[in-house]
Design brief:
single chain, Beta-clip-like, four-stranded mixed β-sheet, three-stranded antiparallel β-sheet, 23% helix, globular
Length: 224
Amino acid sequence: MLSDGIDVRASRTHNVGLFAVRPIPAGTAVWCPCTACSRWTREQVAALPPGRFERLDTYGHLLADGSLLLPCLGAYLMNHSCEANVLDLGLDFGVAVRDIAPGEEVTCDYATFTEDTGWSMECLCGSPGCRGTVTTAQGADPRLRERWRTRVEAALGGLPRVPQPLDDVLTELSEPYRRARAGAHTLAEVTTGSTVCAPSFALQTPTEGPHRTPTPGLTPTPAP
C-alpha cells in the first residue's frame, strides 16, 4: 500500500521511481505491506523459474516465513538510497524520516529487507554517504542500525501530529502504528515483532485471516 501524493516518474538511478507531488512531512507513514499485496508462498517461490524469481525479487521482498511479497499500488517501484528519506526499522510500515519536498524522489534503504539473505546490488544513489554496494547483510551493522534508529525515532515523535493518508489501513493492520499514533515515540515502545518482513497479517495461515496468493508464474508489470 502506498500513500497518495506520490507519482511514478523517470528516475536517474533505476529507470522509474516514486516522486512526491506535494509536501510529505516527516512522520508520515508512506507505505506498508497490506492484505491487497500479492504474495507467493514459500513453496510457490521454490517452484518459480530462476528468471521469474529474479524479476519478482527485484520488485518484491522475502518475508520471514519464506514467502515473497510484492507491494501494491506501485509501492514496489520505490528505489534505494543510502540516504533514504523513508525507513522502517522495527516497524511494519515505512515512515518519512525527514520532510520530502514536491519533485523529490521517495526512497528507502534496501538493506532493511534483511530476510533476502545473500542479496546485493551496485548502488547508484550518488548520495554523500553512498555505500557503493548495498547488501542485506548491512542491515545487521550496529552503526547503520543506530543511525536508522535515531532517524526513525525522531520521525515517530511527529507521527501523531501530521496527516496520515494510510491511517485507516494502518489502524486496522499495524500495532506499532497504533502505539505511535497514541504517542509512543521510541522503538522500544512501539516494536511488537511485526515488521515489513514479518507483517502480522502475512504470517497468518489462510484459515486465520485474509491471504491473497497470486498464480505462481505471475510477474509484475512495471509502470512505463
